[in-house]
């Protein structure tokens, strides 16, 4: 009898320890999930608010609102007494209900420096991650997720096109055709390397025209004029004069 009681006591202690371990794991998992969801919420808000207006479409704005709503609802279910989350859920629900009539107020942000281009590229990477996670969670259907990943890549190409164009145009304004030519060359090479170059034929033609213009300006600038007096041109003139004298005497 005593042995049975001891065995039962040991079993009870093991069971209590196991249950405590499971409860602790659930608590840690909940805390980890809350941190992850808050991070995703922060990133969704950052993309929505700071994405340059020239790349933000109503469809993309709607997607971001849906992603944010999904994460906010999950957080609200975990923090039922949080009034801010409930208010935000109501706001986002109203925005999503507007469909592609959702307001887009993002101001344009010209891509004129490499630092600005990197900032937007990081936003695109964050957007790519949000889409991937939403697909893994089952919130976004696989087909829709693939569509948006292709769209992210398309915006990345447009970002590079704008950057190289602005870089080259600025160099032309500064009367630096050599730097402009380098920028336009990079743009042309980038577009030609795309998996679907036909998709960007219009941008490629435009960039090639800019490259030709810059190249022409470079060649014009290095072509010696009649007023140039240096050792090379003076030497050529002397040689030409000697040749003319020799032709006359011969």
Structural description of this entry:
- The chain has 250 residues and is mostly helical.
- The protein has two domains: 1-108; 110-222, no CATH class.
- Helices cover 79% and strands 0% of the residues.
- The protein has eight helices and no strands.
- It has helices spanning 2-50, 58-78, 83-97, 114-136, 142-173, 177-192, 201-222, 231-249.
- Helix 6 (177-192) runs antiparallel to helix 7 (201-222).
- Mean pLDDT is 85; it is low at 225-229 and 243-250.
Strand count, sense and barrel status of the largest sheet are: none
**pLDDT < 50 stretches:** 225-229, 243-250
Q: What structural category arises from helix and sheet content?
A: mainly alpha
Rg, alpha carbons: 32 Å
Count of spatially separate domains: 2
Q: Overall pLDDT, averaged?
A: 85
The number of helical segments is 8
Shape: elongated
Q: What multimeric state do the chains show?
A: single chain
Task: State the helical fraction.
Answer: over 70%
Q: What is the beta-strand fraction?
A: under 5%
Task: Please write out the topology.
Elements: H1 2-50, H2 58-78, H3 83-97, H4 114-136, H5 142-173, H6 177-192, H7 201-222, H8 231-249
Helix pairs in contact: 1-2, 1-4, 2-3, 4-5, 5-6, 5-7, 6-7
């Amino acid at each position: 009898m005593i042995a049975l009681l001891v065995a039962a006591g040991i079993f009870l202690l093991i069971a209590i320890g196991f249950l405590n371990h499971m409860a602790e794991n659930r608590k840690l998992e909940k805390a980890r999930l809350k941190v992850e969801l808050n991070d995703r919420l922060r990133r969704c808000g950052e993309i929505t608010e700071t994405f340059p207006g020239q790349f933000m479409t109503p469809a993309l704005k709607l997607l971001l609102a849906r992603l944010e709503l999904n994460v906010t609802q999950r957080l609200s279910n975990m923090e039922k007494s949080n009034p801010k989350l409930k208010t935000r859920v109501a706001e986002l629900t109203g925005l999503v209900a507007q469909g592609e009539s959702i307001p887009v107020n993002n101001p344009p942000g010209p891509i004129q420096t490499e630092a600005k281009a990197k900032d937007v590229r990081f936003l695109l990477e964050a957007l790519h991650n949000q889409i991937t996670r939403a697909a893994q969670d089952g919130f976004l259907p696989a087909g829709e997720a693939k569509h948006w990943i292709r769209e992210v890549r398309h915006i990345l190409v447009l970002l590079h096109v704008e950057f190289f164009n602005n870089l080259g145009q600025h160099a032309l304004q500064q009367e630096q055709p050599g730097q402009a030519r380098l920028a336009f060359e990079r743009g042309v090479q980038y577009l030609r390397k795309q998996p679907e170059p036909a998709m960007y034929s219009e941008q490629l033609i435009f960039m090639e025209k800019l490259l030709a213009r810059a190249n022409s300006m470079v060649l014009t600038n290095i072509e010696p004029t009649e007023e140039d007096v240096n050792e090379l041109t003076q030497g050529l003139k002397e040689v030409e004069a000697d040749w003319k004298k020799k032709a006359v005497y011969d």
